[in-house]
Write a structure and sequence with these properties.
Layout (H helix, E strand, L loop, with lengths): L2 E6 L4 H12 L4 E8 L3 H11 L3 E4 L5 H7 L6 E4 L1 H8 L6 E4 L7 H9 L4 E3 L2 H17 L4 E3 L2 H10 L7 E8 L9 H4 L4 H4 L9 H9 L1 H14 L6 E5 L5 E7 L4 E5 L5 H9 L30 H12 L3 H17 L7 H12 L8 H19 L2
Parallel strand pairs: 1-2, 1-5, 2-3, 3-4, 5-6, 6-7, 8-9
Antiparallel strand pairs: 8-10, 10-11
The chain binds nicotinamide-adenine-dinucleotide and magnesium ion.
Length: about 375
């Protein structure tokens, strides 16, 4: 019996790497659902290779192209945003890989949890925006949420076998991104081409920019709070530019466990898909015989103010992380379109946080309202 996987966001960086993992282990996994936003060509190619039960193309103008290309196969074709949720509620798969980027991943992931489907979670924004509701639902439905984000996968792996042993703190490692050591007078002029060049990881555009601003690490602190049920004070960030230690857990006795390896997202993806088993891989191995230095330093929150803003949102809770995320999504897309500068991204997020009414314990509808209001406000100050 193979585990039937639904990949939401199959045309992205995580989605395509997941398909590589699955292609290497066809005795263990099959692909039942693939979804894409615009990239119908890649979706068609993936469908012809993996022969899924169904596919969703969110961009409805591409529906006929996909339908026509798959007309000689058994694959059912759906289109539109609503179809994502509908397909997430189908019975044809065993596990969802949530690999859509941004807030758009929330609804289908929630639907999968409501349908009792285990989640391999790459889409950190789901937990940033509505972590409390999502984890409550997962507990209610007894649905495992297995992290794919490399830091959270590391922590998850460190916690195996620890039962109820108290965590003193977790230490999230950050590469520091392409602008490590730089100061605002340099950052003010950087362009997207430079910001997209991550030293250690090849990722989608949004997370690459978030890594350059350190917003990614802030989002990951919030993600960790919900995944591992931690108090904000128990979450520390340390810059480790080599990205060999993927994160650490320090226990009540002071002992520290880490998970290590070369930076390769296929590893945490495969682990989440095969958990609790570890299955073989041919990924390159870390070689201790080669001269390497592993270094650690404090993040520069004064320069990379996004991390400070995210920590404030982490501590304040309520709809603040949701507002932070929405404003950041708009800011990142504006930066990618050369509409605003690198440091402006922080300024517009900061301003949006002060303008949208705070709600201490939002309902799901209120999260959607806060997200919409924050997006509209940020777009208005950028004049998009
Ligand atoms: P990406 O931009 O490469 O891919 C995003 C995928 O989501 C694509 O398949 C795209 O079609 C789909 N998508 C985009 N907007 C959509 C929308 N509005 N509705 C439906 N589908 C939409 O992104 P990625 O780098 O693969 O990242 C995916 C998620 O995984 C993000 O949340 C990111 O933070 C997280 N993540 C990525 C990495 C990485 O190495 N890439 C590492 C850790 C976590
Ligand atoms: Mg990460």
């Amino acid at each position: 019996m193979t585990k039937r996987i639904a990949i939401f966001g199959s045309t992205g960086s995580i989605g395509t790497q997941a398909l590589e993992v699955i292609a290497a282990h066809q005795d263990k996994f099959s692909v039942e659902v693939l979804t894409a936003h615009h990239n119908h060509e890649l979706l068609i190619e993936q469908s012809l290779q993996f022969n899924p039960n169904c596919v969703v193309i969110v961009d409805e103008t591409k529906y006929l192209l996909v339908k026509e290309a798959l007309s000689k196969t058994d694959t059912k074709v759906f289109a539109g945003e609503k179809a994502l949720e509908e397909v997430a509620g189908l019975d044809c798969y065993d596990m969802m890989l949530a690999a859509i980027v941004g807030f758009a991943g929330l609804k289908p992931t929630l639907k999968a949890i409501e349908s009792g489907k285990p989640i391999a979670l790459a889409n950190k924004e789901t937990l940033v925006v509505a972590g409390e509701l999502v984890m409550e639902k997962a507990i209610e439905k007894r649905v495992p949420v297995i992290p794919v984000d490399s830091e959270h996968s590391a922590i998850f792996q460190c916690l195996i076998g620890e039962g109820r042993n108290n965590i003193e703190k977790i230490i999230l490692t950050a590469s520091g991104g392409p602008f490590l050591g730089r100061k605002p007078n340099y950052l003010v002029n950087v362009k997207k081409e430079h910001a997209l060049q991550h030293p250690n990881w090849e990722m989608g555009a949004k997370i690459s920019i978030d890594s350059a601003t350190l917003m990614n690490k802030g989002l990951e602190m919030i993600e960790a709070k919900w995944l591992f049920n931690l108090h904000p004070d128990q979450i520390q960030v340390i810059v480790h530019p080599q990205s060999i230690i993927h994160s650490m857990v320090q226990f009540a006795d002071g002992s520290i466990k880490s998970q290590m390896g070369l930076p390769d997202m296929r590893l945490p993806i495969q682990y989440a898909l095969s958990f609790p088993q570890r299955i073989p891989s041919s990924f390159p191995r870390y070689d201790f015989k080669k001269p390497h230095t592993l270094t650690f330093e404090e993040p520069d929150i004064r320069t990379f103010r996004n991390l400070g803003l995210a920590i404030e949102a982490l501590k304040k809770g309520g709809n603040w992380p949701c507002i932070l995320n929405a404003a950041n999504e708009i800011a990142v897309y504006a930066f990618l379109r050369n509409r605003i500068g690198f440091l402006d991204m922080t300024a517009v997020v900061e301003e949006t946080l002060t303008k949208i009414p705070f709600i201490e314990k939002p309902t799901l509808d209120e999260y959607f309202e806060s997200d919409g209001a924050a997006r509209a406000y940020t777009a208005s100050i950028i004049r998009m």
